Amino acid sequence: MKAEPAAQARLLDLQELDTALQRLDHRLRSLPEIVEAARLKERVDAIDAELITAQTRASDIERHQRKAEADVDQVRSRADRDTKRLESGQITNAKELQNLQSEIASLGRRQAELEEVVLEVMEEAESVNTDVTRLTGEREEAVAKFTEVTARRDTAAAEIQWDRTRVTQDRERVSADIPADLLALYDKLRSQYDGVAAAPLRYGRCNGCKLALSTVELNEIRATAADEVVRCEDCRRILVRTEESGLNAPVAE
């Protein structure tokens, strides 16, 4: 492949811009706020699950408490009616009086048992409601932190994106100076070699793989026409000849 030396030199400018884009993409992926936001989101989700469980339990206990209090009211009302009958003096039959007194005593024991249940349920409700209050506060705090971190993440990402847009525009301008076939080769190699497709030949060394070229390789490049596109024999990247390539004087074999 042939290309004017100036066009080959532009590959180094293009490579520098593509490397800058890689760094920006790495910065974007590596923002600490991304990891922190993900951690906080997991925390909020975990609290939400606990809170739903606690709220459901509180609702169940509330229904249980209402049922237990209704049972107490029912027994108390019945005991009050029986007590009034007993105190009214309308019942004179000894057997009936005995049965009524026995029922009142039984209702008293039942009321005491139900009131004990109500107290236990109230204690349980207090404990669960404390959990609900605690979890609600923790959720509000976690959500506030998540909101703050995501705002910082979005701001940092926007700044990186602005830099990326600027570099991309520069890349488009540089790409326009490079022949289509050379640009196609460059893009193909870039996808194969970790984003680095073109490197300067500097002081007899490929700046892509950092290996020094042999005397034979340097002499072959020296004998190659300036418009001939050369490749590193080791890493196969495009080698761009510059004033620092070390090709000015012949090298003895």
Describe this structure in words.
- This protein has helices at residues 5-29, 32-88, 94-175, 180-192, 215-223; strands at residues 198-202, 205-206, 230-231, 238-241.
- The protein is mainly α and 253 residues long.
- It is built from five helices and four strands; from the N terminus they run ααααββαββ.
- α1 (5-29) runs antiparallel to α3 and α2 (32-88) packs antiparallel against α3 (94-175).
- It has two domains: 5-26 and 179-241, no CATH class; 31-174, Helix Hairpins (Orthogonal Bundle), CATH 1.10.287.1700.
- A four-stranded mixed β-sheet has the order 2-1-4-3.
- The longest helix has 82 residues, at 94-175.
- The model has no long low-confidence stretch (mean pLDDT 90).
